[in-house]
Amino acid sequence: MSGAGIPAQSLPLAARAPGKCILFGEHAIVHGRPALLLAIDLFTQVGLREAASLRLNGSAEEAAAHPYLRTAVARLRAPGAPPLEVTVSSRLPKAAGLGSSAAFSSALAAGLLASGGGASRDRLALEAFAIERGAQGVGSPGDTTASVAGGYVAVNGGDGRPLWELSDGDRRWAVRRVRDPGWVWLLAYSRVPRDTATTVRAVTERLARPDGPELLARFGDVATRGIAAVAREDRAEVAALLGENQVLLREVGVSHPRLEALIEAIAPVVEGAKLTGAGAGGSIVALPRPGSEVDAARRIARAGGIAYVVRAAPVGAALIGAAPTAAGAGD
Ligand code: MEV
To answer: Which of 86, 118, 129, 203 is 20 to 30 A from 17, alpha carbon to alpha carbon?
Structure first.
């Protein structure tokens, strides 16, 4: 089961969606390789109501300059329907690799689809990806998929029937549920913002070099083994694979001295760590030794980062105040 769809609801309404972290396979997923993502229990909330003109947090200028909002409204607001006032609040840092734009796209798509008569979860996944791709120009559906599905999701890997499949014409991404092992993760933002599209383009160029196919195969192998290790709750193997994935990410040039400093600062109290998301700044993800979460967070603060202790968000994008969706992590 991929979770309930988005019910029809009239305006005003509110929706929310979780951010994400990528445990294995960032960048390689753009090229159709396997990845494992986790929707995290830090959310973005959007409110939608009718207004005299399109506004974002009260500002027409902010709305006009916001490619995600403009793409979403162009796709999902019926021509001739009254303009919208959109309000956003979020616990996710922006440009940090933790899925703030995916959460915004997914929550906004859920709200717009609800006000347009409701939709299936597959359609929500497709629209959230289309908004992010339309605004960003490049990238995979990984981030929006995690935000729509909730829990742990394998892309182009894992077992069983796909929740849904997405394509951009050239590449296909099949999305499968991975059971939530209930682990606590530490995320840490380096305070170095970065631009996903620029980083994706740089890595795509790097992967066009002669050793690109071999590198992609190694990324795919680590992610495939990581998906299996999480599914059988093998922490030692997951920790080792986080390290292997980080070596590959360094090799394609997306680590950063601030990320390496954070990884070093927490090494004594975590089982494994790597950067997460596009890299070149942004954030790291680590599997803390059980009971060491607060110690790890303090070490991050002393090293100049911002720590978040998270678990899986079991439910993906949903209306607030509507009947709960059932995208349980075990489905
Ligand atoms: C960004 O969070 C993850 C990347 O793999 C880009 C993408 O999948 O769209 C770097």
So the answer is: 203
